[in-house]
């Protein structure tokens, strides 16, 4: 009986040790089978997006640079965040208090980085649809690269401040040995990483939708009388509207996957690793990172062509970067 009781403790030699949380068979299957599979699929699919946009010169547009930044964020989720998170959701944390905080750093970076990229994508579509004449001068590649850099710098600095209290006194919020608890200011986090970016995304896309409907009606009423120059403008507008619809799907999937995470912030600021809520929220985040490239496969012919060129090793040929993929 004594051996059984000791086996249920994370550190049997310590009286203040945490008890090992029992894990059901379904949870074990989810963590040790599905999560690694999702991780591998997320890495492979987003790597294809990164290779495609980086390699082919035709794809070096401001909008695609934003998709590239989003793909890098999703790629890091599969490559780094998932392995660390599997460690964090173990029944017992055995690596120490400092490692607990540091291993929590990468997962928390992915959330504001992804949200920031979504805001930039929404701004890009807003300007492209609502102010198409000035879009080429407002959203140059140099401008977009600067915005992407600011997005990532903000994500890193915010998370350093976000975890500062945990770093200053590691293990302060643990109730026993073998526990990894990260405490955050739930209200501030909810406002800065959810309410502000999500509000911006929704407002911008509502405006894009209103303008898109107006332009669609205008196109139908004047399509018979357009001249060559007007016809070119209509074609450009249709292209921008199609891109807005496609990226609108990406934004909608992001909202569905990330809203549950922030919904939990409304009910408390303590996230205990290994809890059922923690596991469920994390799987939603990983699912979002895996879904974005899948969306591109269905809606972007250029992505399907790039995948074909990549798997047939055509990209290894000289001057393959100048291939026509659009």
TrEMBL record:
Q: What is its main location?
A: membrane
Can you provide one Gene Ontology molecular function annotated for this UniProt record? Answer: trace-amine receptor activity
**Span of domain G-protein coupled receptors family 1 profile:** 45-296
Its cellular-component GO annotations read: plasma membrane
Does the record's keyword annotation contain Transmembrane helix?
yes
Going by the entry's taxonomy, the superkingdom of the source organism is recorded as Eukaryota
Membrane-topology annotation of the record: Multi-pass membrane protein
Q: Where in the cell is it found?
A: Cell membrane
Write out the entry's keywords from A to Z. Cell membrane, G-protein coupled receptor, Membrane, Receptor, Transducer, Transmembrane, Transmembrane helix
The UniProt transmembrane annotation reads 29-53, 65-88, 94-123, 144-164, 194-213, 247-267, 279-303
- InterPro entries from the xrefs? GPCR_Rhodpsn, GPCR_Rhodpsn_7TM, TAAR
Q: Which PANTHER family match?
A: HISTAMINE RECEPTOR-RELATED G-PROTEIN COUPLED RECEPTOR, TRACE AMINE ASSOCIATED RECEPTOR 19P-RELATED
Member of which family? Belongs to the G-protein coupled receptor 1 family.
Q: What is this protein called?
A: Trace amine-associated receptor 7f-like
Source species of the chain = Betta splendens
Q: What is the lineage of its organism?
A: Eukaryota, Metazoa, Chordata, Craniata, Vertebrata
């Amino acid at each position: 009986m004594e051996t059984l009781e000791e086996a249920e403790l994370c550190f049997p030699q310590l009286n203040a040790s945490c008890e090992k949380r029992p894990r059901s068979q379904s949870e074990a299957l989810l963590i040790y089978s599905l999560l690694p599979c999702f991780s591998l699929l997320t890495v492979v699919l987003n790597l294809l997006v990164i290779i495609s946009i980086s390699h082919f010169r035709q794809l070096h547009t401001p909008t695609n640079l934003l998709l590239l930044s989003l793909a890098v964020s999703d790629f890091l989720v599969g490559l780094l965040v998932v392995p660390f998170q599997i460690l964090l959701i173990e029944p017992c944390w055995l690596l120490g208090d400092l490692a607990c905080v540091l291993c929590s750093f990468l997962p928390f970076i992915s959330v504001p980085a992804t949200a920031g990229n979504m805001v930039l994508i929404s701004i890009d579509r807003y300007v492209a649809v609502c102010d198409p004449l000035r879009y080429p001068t407002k959203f140059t590649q140099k401008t977009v690269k600067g915005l992407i850099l600011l997005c990532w710098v903000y994500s890193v600095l915010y998370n350093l401040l976000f975890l500062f209290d945990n770093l200053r006194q590691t293990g302060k919020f643990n109730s026993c040995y073998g526990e990894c608890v990260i405490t955050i200011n739930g209200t501030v986090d909810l406002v800065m990483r959810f309410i502000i970016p999500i509000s911006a995304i929704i407002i911008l896309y509502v405006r894009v939708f209103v303008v898109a409907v107006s332009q669609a009606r205008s196109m139908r009423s004047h399509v018979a009388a357009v001249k060559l120059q007007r016809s070119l403008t209509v074609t450009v507008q249709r292209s921008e509207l199609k891109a807005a619809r496609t990226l609108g799907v990406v934004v909608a999937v992001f909202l569905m996957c990330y809203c549950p995470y922030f919904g939990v912030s409304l009910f408390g600021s303590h996230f205990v690793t290994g809890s059922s809520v923690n596991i469920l929220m994390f799987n939603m985040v990983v699912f979002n990172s895996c879904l974005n490239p899948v969306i591109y496969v269905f809606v972007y012919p250029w992505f399907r062509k790039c995948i074909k060129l990549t798997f047939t090793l055509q990209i290894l040929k000289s001057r393959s970067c100048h291939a026509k993929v659009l």
